[in-house]
Amino acid sequence: MPMSKLASPPTDLAVRRAPTFVDVVTERAALGGGTAYTFVSPGRDQRPSLTFAELDARARSVGALLAGRGLGGERVLVLLPPGLDYVVAFLGCLYAGAVAVPLYPPSGGKYTARHAAVLTDSQPA
After folding, report:
1. What CATH code would you report for 3-121?
2. CB–CB of 88/59 below 8 Å?
3. Domain residue extents for the chain
4. Is 28 buried (19+), middle (13-18) or exposed (0-12) by CB count in 10 A?
5. Where exactly are the transmembrane stretches of this chain (predicted)?
6. Residue 4 DSSP class
7. Residue 13: what pLDDT?
8. Which of 53, 79, 105, 109 is least buried, going by the fewest C-beta atoms within 10 A?
9. How many CA atoms lie within 13 A of 1 on its CB side?
10. Beta-bridge partners for 102
11. Phi/psi class of residue 109: alpha, beta or left (left: φ > 0; alpha: ψ in -120 to 50)?
12. Does residue 29 have a pLDDT over 50?
């Protein structure tokens, strides 16, 4: 992507001082910030995107669902392929205070030894 197409950095001091990624998204959404994420896939002309407000709203919804199930502070496997839903789910984990553990979804619906190993390795020390 040409540099001229990249979003300019925020000029609002509150956004630049936001201590976490969740705070950055929340602040940018409140400012009506533009595009937060565009999914670019080789060989596809379509480039779906989310604004900061859309990302914030969708991630809050996921976060509320996770928190409602008592998963704050817990590990949550994010078994999604790359794309907008992955970004929303990952950020939703952060909103809920959960630990996102990203992993490609199992092929054919079958979990592998790798999935089990990642789940085991992601346990708190």
Report:
1. 3.40.50.980
2. yes
3. 3-121
4. buried
5. none
6. G
7. 52
8. 109
9. 11
10. 78
11. left
12. yes
Phi, psi of 34 (to 5 degrees): -70, -135
Q: What is the pLDDT of residues 35-80, one digit of tens each?
A: 998 988 777 777 889 999 999 999 999 999 999 999 999 999 999 9
Structure tokens at 23: 């705070």
Question: What's the one-letter identity of residue 91?
Answer: L
Residue 38 · residue 57 · CB < 8 Å: no
C-alpha dihedral sign at 95, 98, 104, 110: negative
pLDDT tens column, 99-118: 999 998 887 767 778 888 88
Nearest to 87 by CA among 125, 52, 44: 52
Q: Determine how β-strand 75-78 pairs with β-strand 99-102.
A: parallel
Helices and strands (H, E) in the chain, number of each type: 5, 4
